Amino acid sequence: MSLSYREIITRLRGRSLDYYLQSPYAIAFSLSKRQLLPLVNLLKAQKAPTLEQVKPLLLCDLSVEIKSMAENFSQGEAITNEDAAQRATQAAEDILKSDEANSTSSASPNIVNRNRFPDVDFLPADEIRPVGDTGGTTLVLVGKEQGSNAPVVALSYTNDPASEDLFAVPLYELLNHSQDPINLPGLK
What we know:
Elements: H1 5-13, H2 17-21, H3 24-28, H4 33-45, H5 55-73, H6 81-103, E1 110-111, E2 120-122, E3 129-134, E4 137-145, E5 151-156, E6 165-166, E7 169-170, H7 171-177, E8 182-183
Parallel strand pairs: 1-6
Antiparallel strand pairs: 2-4, 3-4, 3-8, 4-5, 5-7
Helix pairs in contact: 5-6
């Protein structure tokens, strides 16, 4: 299974609480509604939870897939919930290690309107930094226009802007159209 962070989170968000509760992992470890409901709610409430935060849900989802695949390929031979849970744990560890490696790389962040700015040099994820705020929301520097070196910023709603979908806007446009005061102490 080779899914990106976004694909995994989207997949987990698409599952119901009952789905998780009936998974081999939840059954094997007697996970209750009280234990899983806060994680399901976290998925709904937080735009970009880490995979570590929702690891039990990932384990439940993987255990369902592993058990289904094992039973399909073994021609009806049953796999226990404990075996599925154990295999899910190993698969989750591999995914988390891969996600950790990917999150420490300097890959480009997801700028949803990147194609609107062919003349902007976007920063790698590890160089995106807060430069101010507007209306209580953090502004992060995501790039500079070629030639003029004018800053291009985005609103960030989490502590990890590189992991969220960002909508870029030239700072001069934001200054002209914002209804809220803009504070830029981090822009030099």
